[in-house]
Design goal:
Organism: Mariniflexile ostreae
Keywords: Signal
Number of strands: 23
Largest sheet: 8 strands, antiparallel
Strand content: 15-25%
Distance between the termini: 60 Å
Helix content: 25-40%
InterPro entries: Chondroitin_lyas
Protein name: Heparinase II/III-like protein
Shape: elongated
């Protein structure tokens, strides 16, 4: 962005000077993009903007390239940042990394091995340590401006440009087409490599040699911009995420957009990239429920929505707020998405590890999405501000009023219940001194990071995940296979009928048919028959009751009716140590608490059959057990009831 279009102002923040950018609100109101109208003029399902959309964008797009921050020679800006606490802290971190060498390129043999095995540990840390150091060197040189970091910056840039492929190796095809130079593709790693080099060239200017700058611009053009716009015009094998509903779309789009707006000297390309990004984000936002539910879980909400909000802030800054993706085409849905985390927590920092989600909120990693959600969606502002990428740090310096670290209520009282009625997910929270709670989901089997888990649940006693969903297998070869027992319904606390598991696809779903929410009792009834391709099955109903009186009691009933006798069983999944007391009683032993599990049946006798989950690398890092509870004989109708009761006194 032309620096003259920025108005620098110095503000006081805890006695320290920071800089922010002020834009003309009146100009934005005069000529803002109507996103709803814009999307109506898309060329079918094409991501590349239509002729009408291009005309609409011309009225709001600047003619010049974008800069995330002023160039290094703007000493008024950078010297003011350098004296702030965050500026000093950033410089100190860069100095601590000063003597470390880049860890790329990795050898072709390691790349091929990682591609074959899906083992991220042998390359991913090297990639991200390299990029993190280079980011720190770039901004530190801008802060200090004495050339100390330039040799290392040159070394790191050259190392990245020497990489045959910027992809995570396991994102290349099985024949390593990107490594071999047969095609070019953008993934979660490539967009970051591109973004870091784009920042270096844009911010450092003449601090880099003309030869180096020219080569950087050339590589960014063919590795990122050309690849991105080509895929947006005609769908190909390279960037299939452009119409995806998962975090890949927003993350990769943010990198492609940053690179193109910063690096491309072609105004038509920059306009096309913005237009494509807006069309693409329609698909990303559609992946959330109308209720704001993120089926990818809390970790991927932070990762994906983080980058969506980065796109929104970048386009707002670039166009003087003429493009508003904070509201996009559905302000109420965006508000619910922004408030998702505080409604998804079960208790004490614990959340449901459904799909590939995390089981606990963390005090590490970026919370950029939470900070911007507090601003634009009135979500809780975190008590600390954490950033992982240089572009986030720059935005924090440009908008100190958003990143002050002054939290809203940091310990809000959680609701008794949360009902995500679009996706069919209920959190029923116990309010005992030792809270006993459950999250249970209907959902469908084409959700992002799907686990074929219609009807799954997780029971939490205090901070222990005492029983239920065991979460995701670690990402390596075979982890995404539907036959992986931690990903299929075999590894979830749901029924198995005639030895058949749940089927995969949008049609295989659960439907919540009844809810009752009271202070001392919650009840959820769901029809989960559609999740199974079992012709003999006439009905299958799962009922959850959370009796919150006393120390609590959670009951799961599975009732089925079939046209002829079928084998039927359910599973108690757990990481806990267990003791089978008798044919109807099991004790689950968590880290500090214990729960009694009572098994009851109607229609026939059941057998309890424990077996280990044969998956070596589970995200939770523990060995899981599947305790099968199966009718001994086939039945036409039957019911299995599992009753969980805490044993520990408060």
């Amino acid at each position: 962005m032309d620096i003259k279009r920025r108005v620098n102002r110095v503000i006081s923040l805890g006695g320290l000077l920071c800089f922010t950018l002020v834009f003309s609100c009146s100009t934005a109101k005069e000529k803002s993009l109507d996103v709803v109208e814009y999307l109506k003029h898309a060329d079918g399902e094409s991501i590349y903007p239509s002729a009408k959309q291009i005309e609409m964008l011309k009225g709001v797009m600047p003619k010049e390239t974008y800069r995330a921050a002023p160039e290094i020679n703007n000493r008024t800006y950078w010297d003011a940042i350098a004296v702030t606490a965050s500026g000093q802290s950033y410089l100190d971190k860069a100095l601590s990394l000063f003597d470390k060498e880049p860890e790329v390129p990795i050898s072709d043999s390691i790349y091929r091995l990682a591609n074959k095995e899906g083992n991220r540990g042998i390359y991913k840390p090297r990639y991200y340590r390299t990029m993190d150091r280079l980011e720190h060197f770039i901004l530190a040189e801008c802060l200090e401006n004495n050339g100390r970091f330039v040799p290392q910056i040159n070394t790191y840039i050259q190392a990245i440009m020497d990489m045959k492929s910027w992809l995570h190796p396991n994102h290349d095809d099985k024949n390593n087409g990107v490594l071999e130079g047969r095609r070019v593709s953008i993934d979660l790693g490539a967009r970051k490599f591109g973004g870091v080099l784009a920042l270096a060239e844009s911010l450092l200017g003449a601090s880099l040699s003309d030869t180096m700058r020219a080569e950087v611009k050339k590589q960014l053009q063919w590795r990122i911009t050309d690849s991105y716009l080509k895929s947006c015009k005609v769908r190909d094998e390279n960037n299939t995420w452009i119409d995806g509903t998962s975090n890949w779309n927003s993350v990769c789009t943010s990198g492609a957009l940053l690179v193109t707006l910063t690096n491309s000297n072609n105004a038509d390309e920059r306009l096309a990239a913005v237009g494509s990004a807006i069309n693409s984000m329609k698909y990303y936002i559609s992946g959330f429920g109308a209720d704001g539910y993120c089926s990818e879980g809390l970790g991927y909400w932070g990762y994906g929505f983080n980058h969506y909000l980065y796109i929104a802030q970048m386009l707002s800054d670039y166009t003087n707020a003429k493009i508003n993706l904070f509201d996009f085409n559905d302000p109420e849905k965006l508000r619910k998405i922004g408030n998702f985390p505080e409604h998804f927590e079960i208790q004490k920092g614990t959340c449901a590890p459904f799909a590939d989600g995390v089981s606990h909120t963390k005090s590490s990693g970026s919370n950029f999405a939470a900070v911007l959600s507090s601003k634009y969606y009135n979500a809780q502002k975190p008590s600390e501000i954490r950033m992982e990428e240089a572009v986030e740090q720059i935005m924090a310096w440009d908008h100190p009023e958003l990143f002050s670290g002054e939290a809203s209520n940091s310990n809000p009282e959680l609701e008794n219940q949360t009902y995500f009625d679009d996706f069919g997910m209920v959190i029923s929270r116990g309010k005992q001194q030792v809270p006993f709670s459950i999250a249970i989901k209907a959902g469908h089997n084409q959700e992002n990071h799907n686990h074929s888990d219609v009807g799954t649940y997780i029971i939490v006693l205090d901070e222990d995940l005492i029983s239920g969903d065991i979460g995701a297998p670690s990402y390596r070869a075979g982890s995404f296979s539907p036959n992986n027992k931690a990903r299929s319904s075999w590894g979830h606390p749901v029924p198995r009928i005639n030895n058949k598991l749940q089927s995969n696809g949008r049609a295989f779903e659960g439907v919540i048919t009844e809810t009752l929410f009271e202070d001392t009792l919650d009840k959820v009834v769901m029809d989960i028959k559609p999740a199974y391709e079992v012709p003999e099955l006439k009905s299958l109903t799962r009922t959850m009751v959370n009796n919150k009186s006393g120390e609590g009691l959670i009951q799961i009933d599975d009732h089925f009716v079939a046209s002829e006798p079928v084998s039927f069983g359910i599973a108690i999944m757990t990481f806990s140590k267990y003791e089978i007391v008798n044919s109807s009683t099991i004790i689950l032993k968590g880290k500090t608490k214990q729960v009694k599990v009572e098994v009851k049946s109607t229609g026939g006798d059941v057998a309890i059959r424990p077996e280990p989950v044969p998956v070596e690398h589970l995200r939770e890092g523990k060995d899981a057990v599947r305790i099968g509870v199966d009718f001994k004989k086939p039945l036409q109708e039957g019911q299995i009831t599992i009753i969980y009761t805490p044993l520990n006194k408060p």
